[in-house]
């Protein structure tokens, strides 16, 4: 793989061995010798980043075995303003996972938004998804980076721990997720998170932060105003009678918050 000029310039400021390898264009040897410096350089280099932004309403699909229903609900969420779709289905067998993921990927491609696969690097590779989201007990970031194209998105769950988020950024994560900020229907045993963690995160990391866990229309404003890039929502969105309207209401909360921040300058 050819090393982008921006990355080359950044690693050239490292030790002599790294500079010598960079001159030879030996990408793999640079990664072996100086993994941390290489990852940081790539994370902050536009040509090594996915063109999709992680922002706004991040919709996590429900566990549906009816593929038609899943696609219909997901399309409604997108029409309402969802900016990212994460495919998660703990009830599906492998054949159904592949079928649904492929169809969702095409749907997301039609609307030009990213599809993230939950906890399954193999599936992400098989359908050429836009990225993968991993928990702390799933595959490691470096495993994902080895198997996925360098432009793919890698998200990491960090629960209530800032140290995990800092390490995730150092290892090359595209974004991190904190939560649960509120009691969650999807994950009732999720670790509770204090709002103050958002303030700490903004001072410590530069990659996007997603808020997750029990987020509803009546509490989303509080985490959005803390400056999260996105809110991850499942039950409140996909169980709604009017999914398009609900998605639009979540999206409006971001637009209102952004307008307030602009007007304070």
Write the layout of secondary structure elements.
Blueprint: H1 5-11, H2 16-24, H3 27-33, H4 35-43, E1 56-60, H5 67-80, E2 84-87, H6 94-111, E3 115-118, H7 121-127, E4 131-134, H8 141-147, E5 153-159, H9 162-171, E6 175-178, H10 196-204, E7 209-212, H11 220-224, E8 230-233, H12 235-238, H13 243-263
Helix pairs in contact: 1-4, 2-3, 3-4, 5-6, 5-13
**CATH structural class of the largest domain:** Alpha Beta
* Overall geometry: globular
What is the residue-averaged pLDDT?
Answer: 86
For this structure, the CATH topology of the largest domain is TIM Barrel
Spatially, the strands of the biggest sheet line up as 1-2-3-4-5-6-7-8
CATH architecture level-2 label of the largest domain: Alpha-Beta Barrel
Number of strands: 8
Helix share, percent: 40-55%
User: From N to C, what is the helix and strand string?
Assistant: HHHHEHEHEHEHEHEHEHEHH
pLDDT under 50 segments (min length 5)? 43-48
Short description:
The chain has 265 residues and is of the alpha/beta class. The chain is built from 13 helices and 8 strands. Strand 6, helix 10 and strand 7 form a beta-alpha-beta unit.
């Amino acid at each position: 793989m050819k090393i982008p000029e921006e990355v080359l310039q950044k690693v050239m400021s490292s030790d002599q061995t790294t500079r010598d390898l960079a001159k030879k264009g030996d990408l793999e040897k640079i990664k072996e010798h100086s993994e941390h410096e290489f990852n940081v350089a790539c994370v902050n280099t536009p040509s090594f980043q996915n063109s999709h932004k992680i922002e706004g309403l991040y919709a996590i699909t429900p566990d549906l075995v009816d593929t038609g229903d899943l696609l219909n609900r997901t399309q409604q969420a997108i029409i309402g303003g969802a900016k990212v779709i994460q495919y998660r289905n703990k009830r599906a067998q492998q054949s159904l996972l592949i079928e649904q993921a492929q169809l969702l990927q095409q749907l997301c491609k039609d609307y030009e938004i990213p599809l993230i696969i939950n906890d399954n690097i193999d599936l992400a590779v098989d359908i050429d998804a836009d990225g993968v989201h991993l928990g702390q007990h799933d595959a490691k970031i470096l495993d994902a980076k080895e198997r996925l194209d360098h432009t793919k998105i890698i998200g990491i769950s960090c629960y209530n721990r800032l140290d995990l988020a800092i390490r995730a950024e150092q290892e090359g994560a595209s974004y991190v997720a904190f939560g649960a900020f509120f009691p969650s229907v999807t994950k009732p045993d999720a670790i509770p998170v204090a709002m103050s963690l958002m303030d700490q995160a903004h001072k410590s990391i530069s990659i996007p932060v997603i808020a997750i866990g029990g987020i509803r229309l009546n509490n989303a404003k509080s985490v959005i105003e803390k400056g999260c890039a996105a809110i991850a929502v499942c039950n409140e969105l996909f169980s709604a009678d009017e999914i398009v309207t609900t998605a639009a209401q979540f999206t409006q909360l971001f637009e209102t918050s952004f307008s307030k921040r602009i007007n304070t300058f």
